[in-house]
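Consider the subject:
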Amino acid sequence: MVAEVSEQTRSRPVSILVVDDDAMVLQVMAAGLRQSGYAVTTTTSPLDGLRILRESVCDLVISDAYMPEMDGLTLAETANGIFPELPIVMLTGFGTVDLMREGLRRGASDFITKPFRMRDIPIVVERNLERKRLERDRLSERSGRILFQAITSLLTAVDAKEHYTAQHSRRVANISLQIGAALQQPEAEMRVIELAAWMHDVGKIGTPDAILRKPGGLTDDEWQVMREHAAKGGEIIAQIEDLRYLSSIIRHHHERYDGTGYPDRLRGDAIPLPSRIIAAADAFETITSDRGYRSSRPVSVAIDELKKHSGTQFDPIVVETLVRLVESGRID
């Protein structure tokens, strides 16, 4: 079966969300996809579909283009804003050129025209998943010089605004790589983790200097402005074709495991694993380093904070891994 052959190296089955207000279409689509080895979640509500995306892992979305509660184009546009690299396949009985053009502009990656043959659907799914894999793998295969120049230029601009950021990003990248290796992430994913960690704060290029360099605590309004850097960073990286795969990771590095973070309030495994790794590494490095408004604190304090917020702010497995690395002397 398609999913079993092409996804055999994955630790979990490919997860597909199907959204359609026609219950019969959902039933047929779900049965056919499950027979091909995919894990399938269905809903008749686009709003419920967005909730599912925020709370669970999803590798691909298949959505009807026309639904009463919210049309598929709006769903695609909203989902694409949260997960820029997520493949979204539009299902429609009106496959016009204008619809396809508008769909592509608003975040759709492919189209299926009704009536469809179920045996063709896995082919569409695999085509889009392979495109996503190629984008990720390109981070390893493309010229390291070109990527390094792009990263250096971005970090130089940020460093001019907040001097500690470049060194902070370097340390966060090193810690993140140690965690990723301990979690036995594949080589291509390690490259993704490294680059995303280096650039996780790039959105601060749009944060006012007065806030970045303020010696004391921030007001509630200033914190609100500061929090915008995660989404801004994702938007900046999404504009660079060779780095677009990183945009979702950067956007979500301040999400919390319990779903109370920002900017999209993702929960648990819906948060990309590299984002969860960077979040813990970022917190550890921030606590143990000097800042303009305070001196560094002991590693023991950082460990206590991570443990205290494990399962709420941080992924428990990531925290456990980081603590083990610190206790073994591999991170200090």
Summary: The domain at 2-136 is CATH 3.40.50.2300 (Rossmann fold). The two ends are 47 Å apart (CA to CA). Confidence is low (pLDDT under 50) at residues 1-10.
